[in-house]
């Protein structure tokens, strides 16, 4: 993983490319990444998924 940078995806974006960029970083399918993100956001009270997503929209650099 050395040398890779976490970035938003331009080619596989739905809203802003945050989850697709994270999925590409970890080498998983973006659809699976989106499902995992939604499940973790809904099932975990301690994980404010929407807030984290909005922060990542502004913090993560473009591809």
Q: What does the model show?
A:
With 63 residues, the chain is mostly helical. The chain contains three helices and no strands. It has helices at residues 18-26, 30-43, 49-59. The two termini are 17 Å apart. 17% of the residues are buried. The model has no long low-confidence stretch (mean pLDDT 81).
Secondary structure layout plus pairing:
Layout: H1 18-26, H2 30-43, H3 49-59
Helix pairs in contact: 1-2
What's the helix count? Answer: 3
Largest sheet: none
How many discrete structural domains? 1
Which ranges are low-confidence, i.e. pLDDT below 50, for 5 or more consecutive residues? none
Written as H for each helix and E for each strand, in order along the chain, the element string is: HHH
Mean pLDDT: 81
Name the helicity range: 40-55%
- Strand content is under 5%
Radius of gyration: 11 Å
Sum up the overall morphology in one term. globular
How many strand elements? 0
Q: Separation of termini?
A: 17 Å
Structural class: mainly alpha
Features:
mainly alpha, 63 residues, single chain, globular
Give a quick rundown of the structure.
Helix content is 54%, strand content 0%. It contains 3 helices and no strands.
């Amino acid at each position: 993983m050395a040398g890779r940078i976490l970035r938003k995806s331009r080619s596989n974006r739905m809203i802003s490319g945050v989850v697709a960029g994270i999925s590409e970083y970890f080498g998983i399918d973006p659809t699976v990444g989106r499902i995992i993100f939604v499940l973790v956001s809904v099932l975990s009270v301690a994980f404010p998924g929407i807030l984290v997503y909005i922060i990542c929209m502004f913090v993560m650099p473009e591809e």
